[in-house]
Model the fold of this input.
Amino acid sequence: MSSRNPRGQRPTLEAVAALAGVGRGTVSRVVNGAPGVSAKARAAVEAAIAELRYVPNPAARSLVTSRTDSIALVIPESESRLAAEPYFNAVIRGVSTELADTDMQLLLILVRNPRELDRLTRFVEARRVDGVLLVAVHQDDPLVAFLEKTQMPTVLAGRRSPDESLSHVHSDNVGGAAQAVRHLLGQGRTTVATIAGPLDMDVGRGRLQGWRDAHAGHGTPPDESLAVSADFTEEGGRAAMGELLDRHPGLDAVFVASDVMAAGALTELRERGRRVPEDVAVIGFDDSIVARHTVPPLTSVNQASEDIGRAITRLLLEEINDPAAPRQYLTLPTTLTHRRTT
Done:
């Protein structure tokens, strides 16, 4: 077999077909991974592609396959929240790592207002991407319902509720929170409060439920006045800690549903003259870089955020390649990382 590509010219599908001794349609099927090609013909085409260094035209390939070779990672948050929250950065790392050995392009899309939501829905309706990864899922988010209605391959990092129908990956939020609170109760702490996440998110409700479950298992029904919800920001965590101290000045422990909120809680405790952990023990959730750099370093529930990014990407690629495959639901385990706030 000898090269028939004139110097300086980009090899064509026809050139590959001529060199392989097959029809143009056979080359197209091989390039697009379609069935119906004999092993002998496929080997000849692949040898011709290698010799000519043929690279498929992406636009032409898209017309044949209806594929864009791109996926969207959608985060319905502001740039400041994206920068301040280590969880998002870890998920993005996981997604990009999983895509590294594929031909897929990653589009990062922030949805901060109704105008951007409208633009994204038109983008999806036009099938400008092959699939969507959605992070930070709220119970009544219209985007999730829209993606389901349009049958766009979609995988969620999180879920709307335990009855979520779309493929999703989430941490064991209930179990992780319960482990943290059991640890505090096991240390002899008697008034264990919690700063929960937003209650319109399954992650917020799940971590609050874990606080309740641990109390119930300890034989001490939870006092709901020891629970305050906040917005996963440092400012929200500080305000919630202040509210808890106003209600229960003698509280001696607090489980906080994120490390970022826990950093705010530690600031408020310091301002109120409470020593950590001597007066108040504190546990966060995420085991992020924030936990290692608070003063003192924060005991935290470790959720493998980067693994969540990798897992949602694997599930989405599988769904893109086989839209008829059953949807998948994964719960990743959590562990408690002990540091000096307990």
User: Anything to note?
Assistant: Residues 296 and 342 are 10 Å apart (CA to CA). The two ends are 72 Å apart (CA to CA). Residues 305-321 form the longest helix (17 residues).
